[in-house]
Amino acid sequence: MKRYLITTADERTWIFDRPVLFLGQWCLRYDCKETWSNLKFEVAAPYGVDPIVKRKDLNYLSDLNKVFLSEISGMMNKLHSVSHSNRYWNLVLGHWIQRYLRVFYNRYKTIEQVLERHKISGTVSLEFDLFELASNDSIGFIFNVNKDFWNHILNVEILKFFGVKFIDYKNELAYEKNIKQQSANSETIWKKFLLYTVNNILPLFSKKSDAFLINTYLPFRSEIFLQLKLKQFPQVWKSRGIPEWDINEELRNSLKFPISNRQNFETFVWKILPKVIPRCFVEGYKDILIDSKKVNWPQKPRFIFTSNSFDTDELFKVWLAEKVAQGVPYFVGQHGNNYGTLYGFQNNPEVIDSDRFITWGWSRDPRRQIPAFVFTKCNESQGIYDPMGGLLLIEFPPAIRLGPEDNWFDFTKYFDEQIDFYKKLPEKIRKKTIIRLHNSSKYYRWFHEERWKEVDLEVKINSYQSKLKNFIAKSRVVVHSYDSTGILETLNLNIPTLCFWRNEFAYLVEEAVPFYEKLKEVGIFHSSPQGIVEFISKNWDTIDLWWFSKDVQDVRLIFCDQYARKVKNPISVLEKILLGI
Question: Organism's domain of life (predicted)?
């Protein structure tokens, strides 16, 4: 049977009088269920969710990434009349290249799979300018990957690339104009004074050779203490925003890349690249470069240390690349979990291009990857929890379609397991359970609270506005529903911790698996909702007895020594690492 292809949740591209094929679960918005549930529809199979396929794709894209970095570095040098190294450009746009290849690979393979498996009668194309794919900056690209207009444009272009003839053109604009929400100015006079002091007064006491620390992931007091130990006046450096640039079509059309005549993924991503690369790298690079020379940061810093600014802070990245090119040492602190465990993180720019990568315990290269401690909890010796309290379920961030696999499908399955877990809990435990939503849930259309209320009108939901620490203090056990930074933190603080997720350890690097297996052996990790519910039901009244047993504590210490270390005098330890003592 032929079906009409629908690729996004934008109902302007839907048709209602014939059988349809939805490209993926993202088309089926929860708040539009009354509309799509009445259609004669199928949902296309997801691409790349098999762990073996995903690992194979990550390997392929990692190799392709190296080729792209080399070619784009040459293009950027020519475009901007400079002669920087691949390392320089990897610091500036390496994360974007990685995401670009993964996102476009997913969209390309998803369409390719649909065309191979289904007979398509047609699809709608709205009006658009292809340059609308180009975000202003890296963070704009991340937000765009979940937007209907952006995915609509990309899907249509992929269909055209495959030479399909069944596109029905509709005289409506695809582009969603950004509506800036007006908010009351809540800044008090004191807050304005504080910001002015941080940005304008404190830098007056900075020396041009001071170490530059920004977004270190350390608690505020710990960062101040570190700067005092480095014998410099404490600073709270803040980056600056960047302007919006207009598209320069002539400039972009001059970009030339190695395009073959073959109809394959590599040809497509080279061909469309000039229409997609963010404006901050093409139209805006020279402006950012000028600003980077004017910013009141140290001119010749002893070293640069960050745990977060290396990804989407465009001004910092250009400033950083310039300083690194001048020989300034560049140190990166581990930002949360996944480093040292998640397959595909090994070649992130901050790992391979920093002079030292400071971890929370692990190391593959003793010369460059230096074990330290859990930055976020370095000033806490022991966690606070309530042995007679409730159960706190920590939820995964909503699906962001950034991977080579179908993240939305994976998240749908994940959420089904969350509901299954909750419903299987004994009533007395369920009544003492709090669902903690991730703070990024406010940005995406998953409708978490509505979905949970559909299951249980009396479910207790704690959103991102409240401090997580306060809810942990009222809980006897914290259940992590995904491999998260939170697991490392609660294990580090010796708070009773449980966790469960799909596909067990298929996503891990080989050397991490034995450590996770140990968590499973003592009951910290479970591979199914049924398994963890049975464990909780059995041990609910004696969680502390289980948690502080010798077997569990021994495993906790082994795991923490590798991935969530606690050390004496952590800031002194970090000082010595940074100074190479």
Answer: Bacteria
